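pinging the channel bc i need a second pair of eyes. not urgent but kinda urgent?? the chain im working w is below, pasted from the shared doc
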Amino acid sequence: MLLQKREQFNMADRIGKPVSQRQLRVGEMIKQSLSMIFIKNEAKVPEIETKSITVTEVRMSQDLKIAKAYVLPLGGKNADEVIEKLKKNAFFIRKILSQKVMIKFLPKILFKKDESFEYAEKIENLIKQTNK
């Protein structure tokens, strides 16, 4: 419940204010570090081959306390299952990330499924249908 209210607050905050340069820099730094952790399989998440996970985007909250990491497994197979396992092991991933990223306060990481590719494919299909 509290997390839902916080997300609603962040969305209202996000709509009202532009994304700062600091948010973009920190988000990109966390994205690159998470990608390297997954590629090198340093996370040791049980039952997941982390080498096949792609981190497409990391969005930071205004106060830099929360990072939403949009991820997608290779080919999009079992995406919901992979996201759930990442959420369960977020503490361990954050612990490894703290060794890689030098930042005063490491944000809490929320893993979300990246649906931008599905959305782009849907739009592309609609455009193809109108061109027929």
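so The beta strands are 53-60, 66-73, 108-113. and The CA atoms of residues 73 and 79 lie 6 Å apart. — does that match what u expected or am i reading it wrong
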